[in-house]
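Table S5 (text form). Sequence records supplied for joint modeling of the two-component complex.
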Amino acid sequence: MSTSTLPAAAAPAAVPKAQFDGKPLLLLGAIAVAALPLIGSPSTWVTLTVAGLAMGLIIFVIASGLTLVFGLMDVLNFGHGVFIAMGAFVATSVLGGMAGWTTAPSVWLNLGAVFTAMLAAMAVAGALGWAFERVIVRPVYGQHLKQILITMGGMIVGEEMIKVIWGPQQIPLPLPETLRGSFLIPVFGEAAAVEKYRVLAVLIGLVVFGALLWVLNRTKLGLLIRAGVQDREMVESLGCRIRRLFVGVFVAGSALAGLGGVMWGLYQQIVTPQIGAQVNVLIFIVIIIGGLGSTLGCFVGALLVGLLANYTGFLAPKVALFSNIGLMVAILLWRPQGLYPVTNR
Amino acid sequence: MNVLQLAGVHTHIAAYHILHGVDLAVPEGEVTMLLGRNGAGKTTTLRTIMGLWAARQGAISFKGGAIDKLPTPDIARLGIAYVPESMGIFSDLTVKENMLLAARAARHAAELDSERLEWIFGLFPALRKFWLYPAGKLSGGQKQMLAVARAIVEPRALLLIDEPSKGLAPAIIQNLISAFRELKSQRTTILLVEQNFAMARALGDSVAVMDNGRVVHSGRMAELAADDGLQQRLLGLSLGAHQ
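The corresponding structure-token record, covering 588 residues in total, follows.
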């Protein structure tokens, strides 16, 4: 076997190693630090920051599937909101039916009820996602305008279905007994109130983020997804049946939206059939800020949106309405492809 | 025996009729050169074989079985590897991950056939050096080496390679030629699209020349290489620029 000699020109020593781009994370930290003097009270800052992180992580759980669906197949799914609403409504039924567990003064029973509701919501939203992909999305591959119209239409149909099953009125989704109220954390002599449920939301969000990173970075399946986001045709040429992969990602993304719906519903403690449409705009802002198709970008984008919404809501409630759009404009002026652009697209 | 056979293949891309009845045979264990000027339909022929563009008419058979109705992944799974002109490198992924993607039998890098990997590193030493680097940071020549290495990470029955020498420095082209010679000595069947006649002459066993979406000449490479008049007639347009 001949070992061909490589000309010196072909092997420059100075190929840079992959460098992690930490600037978006620094921005996140900078915004949190900059908010402290503006807010003044460290205890209030802690309360707002935890609330922002909780909101951001819930949005991340919802949006992570959407960004992969777009990245993998160029599918703009404006109907993602229906999975959120479906998840939240399934939770109202499950938690309503488990009143014995939710009203018991036991953390374990309460958490058991919440996790049961989450699993049920994920199963129903995942199954709905499978049907949605088959009936609504599949006929319009590669046609963006039709995708937008028909997926929005699909969401309207989904909303009406929810009204048929659960009724048009809003349904309260109270937190189980032991998850209500706050922890009091001493900060410089003051007590910062941190709602228990927000801590739980942060933990669940981090678990989902960790699991997603593990699948994407440590498994062959994740490698195929990352490669498919960059160059679908080449992945197919290497022998991967990307359509099946896409259906799997769509179902998983819908299930995560269902989980996010439960988390969002418990965060608001009230559920309306329009809950999906309300969150829809927010999650599109997040995936555009993050860079379409990027999971890390979606994570950082969601945290930015969550923190900023809570800080501005406290500092200047009137500005809060525009803070997300303003953030998106600023980020796109800085990085037109989003925080972590996916190359080869 | 012919591994791959195209008979009367017509391909349309949107409103354009690109291939007008391509007849092509790729003999087993040989390097078949597909030559022709720009726009003759060489790339379209490779993409049609891979199922990336559908043949509207005609038959494509691989090892005796029809493949013209199969989706791309199934064609690849039969043992055809494709190196596109754009190289199809995943630039955000490392060299290792690019190789792992192509190895269908391996779930982790540790499961890659180490003996074969050593052989590939022998062909393209730069890949060992930059194993953990993002492929997007490699030079053009190194990317091309990675693209070819990816195609041979597992044994394949047929390699389709589209203009590997394009845009590369002469020294690197020489390196690629040595690597292809090594593949040839292993009796790998290759269908190689090339505009660089020197490279075609150095590697080809048989040759097909395309023009206007048809194969206008096929025969032995040695005969074409020895016949200046034929070269002039078939390749006159592309020769001057590339020799």
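Note: The radius of gyration of chain A is 22 Å.
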